[in-house]
Amino acid sequence: MRSFHHPHRHCGEEAQRHHFGRRGFGGPGHGWRGDPGEGRGGRGRRRVFDSGELRLVLLKLIADEPRHGYELIRAIEELTGGSYVPSPGMVYPTLTLLDEMGHIAETKSEGSRKAFAITPDGTVHLTERKGEVDALFARLAELANVQERTDSAPVRRAMGNLREALINRLGRDGVQKQTVHDAVAIIDEAAQRIERL
């Protein structure tokens, strides 16, 4: 069984940043970063792909051009507008499996990173699953569309204003419990009104 070097040895802090994801706020822009199949945890991760779907996504990206693991992580991040970043802990074992299945093989690349190219068997497999592959990449595009709508500059500005207002008002000494309850009620009402838009 072939094993691949852990990407942190090659990418340092940059790979670690992708491994842990980046914090956003609300909805897909916050909760879809992380590993496929992970439950909701400290960062609210949610399922994006199962292992078989991730194999097809990686295989298609490698078919487009030879890539190493870190480039595949970046490619998926770019395709989703930054809303989903698979961890090296999911990508590298999947590359190992694709290699063992005979769907990819190492190819010459610059530096110490291992790049992979698709094999004839991998091309056949990709062709046979074309409909599924197209649907998976349509899902990636939809994630990017949702990210663009929910993480736009005006939304970030409004969320920042809300945060500052809460800190300024509720951070004062002697704030009454009723004031806190009133602030929460206003936020809840705003959320309900947004849902009805």
Describe the structure.
The protein folds into two domains: 143 residues, Arc Repressor Mutant, subunit A (Orthogonal Bundle), CATH 1.10.10; 43 residues, no CATH class. The N terminus is likely disordered. The chain is elongated. It has a three-stranded antiparallel sheet with strand order 1-3-2. 62% of the residues lie in helices and 5% in strands. By secondary structure, it is mainly α. α3 crosses α5. The chain contains nine helices and three strands.
Q: What's the arrangement of secondary structure elements?
A:
Layout (H helix, E strand, L loop, with lengths): L7 H13 L6 H5 L19 H14 L2 E2 H11 L8 H13 L3 E4 L7 E4 L1 H9 L1 H21 L2 H18 L6 H19 L2
Antiparallel strand pairs: 1-3, 2-3
Helix pairs in contact: 3-5, 3-7, 4-5
Short précis:
The chain has about 200 residues and is mainly α. It has 9 helices and 3 strands, in the order H-H-H-E-H-H-E-E-H-H-H-H. Helix 3 (about 50-65) packs across helix 5.
Order the strands across the largest sheet as they lie in space: 1-3-2
How many domains would you count in the coordinates? 2
H-E order = HHHEHHEEHHHH
Quaternary status: single chain
Mean pLDDT: 76
Largest sheet: 3 strands, antiparallel
Contiguous runs where pLDDT drops below 50 for at least 5 residues: 3-45
Helicity, as a percent range: 55-70%
What structural category arises from helix and sheet content? mainly alpha
Radius of gyration: 21 Å
Any guess at the CATH architecture of the largest domain?
A: Orthogonal Bundle
Number of strands: 3
